[in-house]
Amino acid sequence: MSDQTSTAPQSRLAQAWDSDFAYSFRRSPVAVVSFLVVMLLVLSAIFAPLIAPYDPFDPASLDLMNGFTAPMAANDFTGDTFWLGTDDQGRDVFSTILYGMRISLFVGFSAVLFAMVLGITLGLIAGYVGGWVETLIMRAADVQLTFPAILVAMLIFGIAKGITPIEHQDTMAIWVLILAIGLSDWVQFARVVRGATLVEKDKEYVQAARMMGRGRGIIMLRHILPNVLSPVLVIATISLALAIIAEATLSFLGVGAPPTQPSLGTLIRIGQQFLFSGEWWILLFPSATLLALALSVNLLGDWLRDALNPRLQ
């Protein structure tokens, strides 16, 4: 009996490893490499306090004499050496990238989660309830789609920051940024979930749930929602890359993360000021990190879309 119990987890792991999903992943070098890059960057951001050789946002640890030190070159005044060089304030670029990724990833994941919850909720309601409720929700979605998402995010960010007290603007800037990106990205979730709900709500298992006296909320959450999640997961993966880029764009434009909590976009904005004066590393390394992160997430989302598409099985 004990032997059967001890081998049960291994058998489940073996079944998962031999599944079509895992086989498709193993057979795709692009998916494997993208997954490894994403995991490396995410883990580096999570454990930034342990990996980073310096705390770049601790004023007590900064030395202006280390400013504009080239990568792997000794500073002319202090003799200190930094892997990826330093910026104008003497901050280690490698450390700033690790801490900046934490902000970018936190904003990206939180914004996508907020957009997904809002879009799924409105999509389920629009598809199942129908009538004037569906018309109101979908017309609002159509109106929002007529504007570029980055402009919608900037508008929402400006309005939210305008009604926030001045003394709390820096502390609330990250949450306002999440709100702005999330509200600009819920439409695609709502449209996909509404279309899938329209198909699912007339199937026999939903009609059986109605005959059993189940309420609308129970039917939508317990019966319809699990059957419409596959396309939502694909959209969420691709939206993560778009949310990270949107955050970087807003921060680059100076309306995103505050200087006290710089993200990758803020670091790129700082770096481009010194590009033509010869300090290329201040811009290059944060830009390359953002490119690797966004590209890897996008490629992983493309593979996930193909893997979950039943027509390609």
UniProtKB/TrEMBL annotation:
Keyword Secreted in annotation: no
Pfam entry (one): OppC_N
Entry membrane topology: Multi-pass membrane protein
Keyword Membrane attributed: yes
Transmembrane segments annotated in the record for this chain: 30-52, 103-129, 141-160, 172-193, 224-246, 280-301
Cited Gene3D superfamilies: MetI-like (1.10.3720.10)
Subcellular location: Cell membrane
Domain ABC transmembrane type-1: 101-301
Keywords: Cell membrane, Membrane, Transmembrane, Transmembrane helix, Transport
Chief subcellular location: membrane
GO cellular component: plasma membrane
GO BP annotations listed: transmembrane transport
Family classification: Belongs to the binding-protein-dependent transport system permease family.
Name recorded for this polypeptide: Glutathione transport system permease protein GsiD
Organism: Shimia marina
